[in-house]
Write a structure and sequence with these properties.
The protein is mainly α and 433 residues long. The chain has 5 domains: 40 residues, no CATH class; 63 residues, Helicase, Ruva Protein, domain 3 (Orthogonal Bundle); 120 residues, Up-down Bundle (Zinc Finger, Delta Prime, domain 3); 81 residues, DnaA, N-terminal domain (GMP Synthetase, Chain A, domain 3, 2-Layer Sandwich), CATH 3.30.300.180; 56 residues, no CATH class. It has 22 helices and 3 strands. Strands 1-2-3 form a 3-stranded mixed sheet. A hairpin with a 2-residue loop joins β1 and β2.
């Protein structure tokens, strides 16, 4: 990493580079050539090295396996190439270990996955199928099985994200780009699975998985967080009765000789059911959480105010949505009202929908009145009892002191109030000099 040298070090070596000795060759290696001074770059011959593709590594390993008479499945070669991450040396090292481990026997995909602790591809396929079917219990069982097997949950989430990317590529007509990412068997299964999703759904799935995966980096309870993520995916993408994209766009061929009554019924049914699907597609709590995240990005100073409020309900009307919030302090209510225009603009940009109105209530005044009324009533009641049965005078006599001699009238009144509030007795009176 020659770019980490200081400017003084570069200046010191510059003279040597201009007039190098005959017996010396200088080789500079760096991952950031843009950080090198122009005076150094102009005096060097540059060679750019790139990662080797998975297909090239797989073909190279197949040649070596043939020469060494190592029996190995093509899918196993692909899994080794994927784990090599663009490095021939790492791929050869893995193949050498497997050849020693399975000496004289055929190396299978299962052998590669066991040695490298790779999660089987069928688990990723099963996970996405569970998202589509909305099987919540199945999602929890997959997380439990992966966790109990000792796999890295963050790596598992990255694998699910990679398979979601392959679904997007297949849906976009670029299925040939997935050959380096998954085995041919998995690619065939993904092709059938992609037909069950629409392109907006797949893009939404890919975006949500990417966002949640970034959050996992800062989580301590990975399993709990991952279970929550998978339940959300099953809730969002596994709605029963979901219509395919063609039916939504009205591409279904018309029946022969439709009557006006039938046409009218179909239009009415579509108009009645469509809003319900949109509402169910994003639950209220999820919608509110998405809005809070967006506010935290654009106006972080308003986020504590919104979190301090309790979401009572969210209504949809002809003029947009109405959000009902309940606050404990009037200050928070005033801060929200003064920034309502800003929040409405953030809402519009985030959801690309109509207006939003915030209806707020404050619990502060009611609670303050109750807390003020009850202690005052208690004090008055205690004072009345103390006048009829004065503790001060009795206890002062018991201790051999005079209350009037030890306390001035103002102090005596204050002590009487305290005794009335806590139902106490005076045991002694002491004055510090």
């Amino acid at each position: 990493e020659v770019h980490m040298l200081t400017d003084f070090a570069f200046n010191a070596i510059l003279k040597t580079l201009e007039e190098p000795p005959e017996h010396a060759k200088f080789i500079f290696a760096t991952t950031h050539p843009d950080k090198l001074p122009p005076t150094i770059i102009s005096r060097c011959q540059r060679f750019d090295f790139h990662l080797v593709s998975t297909g090239e590594i797989s073909r190279h390993l197949a040649e070596i396996a043939g020469m060494e008479k190592i029996q190995i499945e093509p899918a196993a070669l692909l899994r080794i190439s994927q784990s090599a991450a663009g490095s021939f040396r790492d791929g050869l090292s893995i193949l050498d270990q497997l050849a020693s481990f399975r000496f004289g026997e055929q190396i299978t995909v299962s052998d590669v996955e066991k040695m490298l602790s790779l999660i089987p591809e069928k688990v990723y396929l099963e996970t996405i199928q569970l998202f589509r079917s909305g099987n919540r219990r199945g999602c929890l069982e997959v997380v439990a099985r992966v966790s109990q097997s000792g796999y890295d949950l963050f790596r598992f989430t990255s694998g699910v994200l990679e398979f979601a990317r392959c679904l997007v590529l297949i849906k976009a007509g670029a299925g040939d780009l997935t050959t380096d990412a998954v085995t041919p068997e998995s690619a065939q299964a993904l092709t059938g699975l992609a037909s069950q999703f629409t392109m907006p759904e797949l893009l939404n799935l890919l975006e949500k998985l990417a966002e949640e995966r970034d959050k996992l980096k800062h989580e301590d309870l990975l399993r709990v967080r991952l279970e929550t993520i998978f339940l959300k995916m099953a809730e969002v993408f596994g709605k029963p009765g979901y219509e395919p994209e063609k039916e939504k766009e009205g591409d279904t061929p018309p029946s022969s000789g439709p009557t006006p009554e039938n046409c009218s019924c179909r239009v009415c049914s579509a108009r009645l059911t469509e809003p319900t699907k949109v509402e169910n597609y994003t639950p209220i709590n999820d919608l509110w959480q998405l809005f809070l995240e967006e506010v935290g990005k654009e106006k972080p100073f308003l986020l504590p105010t919104l979190k301090a409020g309790r979401l009572e309900k969210m209504e949809t009307g002809p003029n947009g949505k109405t959000v009902h919030l309940r606050f404990r302090r009037q200050f928070e209510q005033g801060l929200l009202k003064s920034n309502q225009a800003v929040l409405a603009e953030i809402w519009f940009r985030k959801f690309d929908s109509g207006n939003v109105l915030f209806e707020t209530e404050v619990e502060e005044e009611k609670k303050i009145d109750e807390t003020r009324t009850r202690p005052q009533a208690a004090v008055l009641q205690r004072e009345t009892l103390n006048i009829q049965s004065p503790h001060l005078k009795t206890e002062a006599v018991k201790s051999g002191h005079s209350a009037s001699a030890s306390l001035i009238p103002e102090e005596e009144e204050l002590v009487r109030r305290v005794l009335g509030m806590f139902d106490g007795e005076v045991t002694s009176i002491k004055k510090e000099s």
